[in-house]
Each structure stands twice: as structure tokens, then as C-alpha cells.
């Protein structure tokens, strides 16, 4: 039983973890902030506005020790949501455990051998949905392979990779795509480990036994429960037939779950409670396909960062199910169900066909590099949005049953979510500078750090397993940014396909429908201006959750706009330069990480300095109303949040913003 938690600083997060454990939580799930996830120290230019927002900053072994102060790591099961820098965070975690052992007068090797937990470490889904990748696919797969080989030998209770289909569903994946892409990722990893020769063939079953999965459970209860049974069936078949694993226990499909956040609504957010409970049941009712670990989102995640009380509520949901109900006392309730067996067979057949298609392309890495998987997810998400907008998919409180009584939970929105003090980033930046300066002021420590980094570069170039060099770096007080920078020198960086340029979206429309009316508004405004309307969709900062930006870009293109979309992880300066170079009529910024108050004003100031202050800026994301008001006061034309789900309505609003900025009279009201 977990909640996904971490924010502000290692000390603040440690206090939160200790409170949660005292309330009956049985494992820790660590959320790291975006600079940590993408290999930057808090004082790096790209870390602006992102430090401590969506997780805890961990810059060096001192931070890791503070994060787990008074929490004995030998006794803890810790899940770490970390991917591109997973090897580094595992190295820091191991060294922190060694130092706890030394302080306790124990053998550090015994503590390391006993460590239990998981590094998420699925880089494929980062290219497809979450965006915290750093390196190209080949070196990324090498880092995973090295971690698998190391942990099987040295930390045998550790899950070195969590094949993570969770974010695929968040990016729009159908159940078939979620199963097929996750299984294809597992194949890529296992094939790479086998080909590396680092694990003897006789011990390969132990590798398979440590592969775990992290799965999403949506609100379509029967389909989601059957999806889990399909996962179990396919994994057993794959590990037996492709990898020759004869031990049924080693072939067990081991998975944890966070239930769906994509379906949580800002409108009538109290409805999210029953959604979360239904989704939890989908991964617990079927004993033969039951999750080993569950973490639940909070009811107010579509509003902002949950408070400790909100996380407690989600924990109590699990405890009521486990301790008050009789759900866990019976064998599988669905054995022999004709309905369930039929749905499982349908999902298995669809997943097999999609896996075969990916295999023909050369596997998961090739399907990422070609843009196939990303384009398929963008198309699936566009279809999901179309169904919601058309009312074919009912979302209670959002597109049906919208009348509501005043909600006491959100009566004061400023206190209904957790906020991160602006001083957190300044303190973290100063702390990491002090750490480096203190280290380098001591010649012995400085030389040890330099030697460790040189070994890391040499091992990266030679093909040696990088775990030993990473542990050296952790012990030598190297920072997250220094470790990642050394590997960037050797491996380079990567920009994944956006999926927007493919043949996706709503496409055709009927005369007189909402999309055709928007197209008319766009065309008439273009005629009035004597040029085609151009908009730039930008994602400043390190927020890699690009699903919303992609859907806006796709619908804008369908509506007749010329769209400039360059993907994730852009500086405000890059966005301003692109807006000026492309002579756009509007800039649309998408930020879900909470850094909007820092990054949006920088874009506004940049446009003004570039002589483009007349280009209107609109912003979308998880933005509290008080922040939205401040952004509008600063010059933002419009702010959109998750309650604004009608993309055609939004497109009509954009036309109105452009006309107002260019001094044109309004056209008819945006389509309903």
C-alpha cells in the first residue's frame, strides 16, 4: 500500500514519508522532481521553475541520506519513479543504505543484499508519453541492461525495471496497445540482457523473475480487469516460449498499479473518489491477476498537488478494502465466466497481432525511432477526445449531469491543494552550489570526484558495466547534473518523434458541424489578414507530459491552422525565437508541472524584448484559479484548464483572440 509522494526538499519529503508510514502505509513510492529525472542540478538554467514541484530534488548522496533519515532501508520496500537517471538514483540509494549500515554497526554488504524495491526505468514509454528521457534509445537500453545484470547479482530482491504501461494509457493507448507496447518493451529489454552476455544462460530465469510491470487501471471495470488477466496469460506464454523459463514462479506476472489519472476531472472533482475506488477494484477482484502493490491518486489531482490529508484519504481506501471487506478471502471470482473468457481472448488476440507488427519493424526501439508507436497513441487519444466531445463517452459532471451543488471541498481553492514555496528552488540551487564548492575546496575530495567522473566517461566509452563507476561517483559526492553531463558527453541527447505530423486527428467533418464551423472561422480570419493563420504550441521547461499539447496541435491543424510544434523541453528563449522566426499569430503554452508562474512571464518578457509583444499568448495546464488570474493580469490572453475539454470550442476561442489582437471585429460565437 503506497501513495506516490515527494516535494519541496529531501527533509520535507522525509517528514511526509514518516507520517505516511505511521498511518499504515506499507511501502514508499518516491516522486522525484523533473530536474532530477532529466539529469540537471537545481541551479541549471533548464531547472527554472521546476525544482521541488512534482517531486523531491535529489542532487547528491547527502540528499538521498536526508530523504530516508530514520527510515531503515534494509526494512523498507521503495519504489522510485525514475527512468533516464535510474542507475544514478539506485547508486545513491545503495550508498545511503551502506552508510545507514555503518552507522548501525552492521555489514554494509548485508544491507545492500537485503534491499527491496523497484526502479521504474522503462525508457521506451518516456519516448512515447512521459518525456523524461535524456539519451538516445541504444545507450538508454544499455543503462537498463547494466542495471539488470548488476542487481541480479548484488541486490537480488530489487526489481531493476518496471515495464510501465501506465503512461501509455494516459497518452491514449487502447487496452490492446497498452498490452502490446508493454510486452514489446519487455522483449527489447530481455533480448538486450541476453545478448549482452552479462548473465549466464543458466541464470536467465532469475532475470525474468525480477521483471515487474506498472499498469494503469481505468474506470471501464470489466475491460480493465480482463486486461490484467490477458497480461498474465501473455507474460506466461512469452517467458516460457521465447526465453525457455520452466519455473512457473519465475514466470509470474508481477505488477503494481496506480489507477487512472487521465480520467480524473476538475469539474465536480468529488466524483473522482468513486472513480478511484472502481479502478482499484479492477485490479483486486480477480485473485489470479491481482496487483502486488497499489498506489492511488488523490481526488484533487486535476486541481493541483495533493495535500497530505488527500493522500491519507487514498491510503484509507485501500485499508478499508483490505481489512474491512472480505474481498481477499476467496479464490478467483471470475473463473469459468464466459463473458470474461471471451473478452480476455479478444484482448490477447489483438495484442499478439500488434506485437507481431512491432516485431516485423525490428522491435520496440525501431517502432519508437520510426514514430510508429507515438503516432498510433496520438491517434488513439484524438479518438478518445472526439468521443468525449461528441458525448459518445459520458464523463459524469463534465459532459453530462453538469448541474451541481456548491462543493465544500473546493470552497477555498487556494487551500484545497498543496503549494510549494517559491523559496524552495532558491534554497536548493544554493545548497547544491555549496555542496560542490565545499567538496572542491578540499583537494582530496576534489581529486576523488574528478577521478570518479573520469572513470564514468571511460567506462561509458569502453562498454564496461556502468554501475560500478556510478557507485564510485555517488561515494565521491558527484551531483546528479555532473553524472548526467558526463554521460551526455559520451552518448549525446535525443529528441523523440512528436507523433503530431502523422495522419491523425478528427480529419473529415460534416457540413455545419462544430469542426466545420471552426474551419470557416479560421478561413475567414485568414482571408481578412491575407495569410494563413499560424500558431505555435510550446512546452517550456522540463514538463514532458505532452498529451494535451499534442491534441491541441492536432485539432488546430484539423481546423485549418498552420501549426508549429517542436515537442517538449524548450526554454522560453527557444519558444520566443521560434515564434518570431515563424511569424505566428498566437503562442499557446502547455505546462502541467506547476512551473507556469515562473516560465510564462519569461515568454511574455521575451516576446516584448523581441518586438513581438502584440502576439497573444494563451496557456493551458493544471493551473489554480488564483494563478490563472495572475497570469491574465500579466498579459496572458486566456487560460485553459482540464475542465475546458471541448477542443473545437477552444479553437473558436483562439480565433477570437487572434482577431482581437489584430484589431478585427469579432465573428459569430465559437461553436458549442
Question: Characteristics of this structure?
Answer:
about 675 residues, alpha/beta, five-stranded parallel sheet, 14 strands, MMCoA_mutase_a_cat, metal-binding, Protein meaA, MeMalonylCoA_mutase_a/b_cat
Annotation, overall tally of beta strands = 14
* Proportion of helical residues: 40-55%
Please give the order of strands in the largest beta sheet.
Answer: 1-2-3-4-5
What class do helices, strands and sheet pairing give?
alpha/beta
Rg over alpha carbons: 25 Å
**Which of globular, elongated, flat, extended, rod-shaped describes the shape?**
globular
Low-pLDDT ranges: none
Give the number of helices: 26
Biggest sheet features: 5 strands, parallel
Beta-strand portion reads: 5-15%
State the separation between the terminal residues, measured CA to CA.
44 Å
| Overall residue-averaged pLDDT value | 93
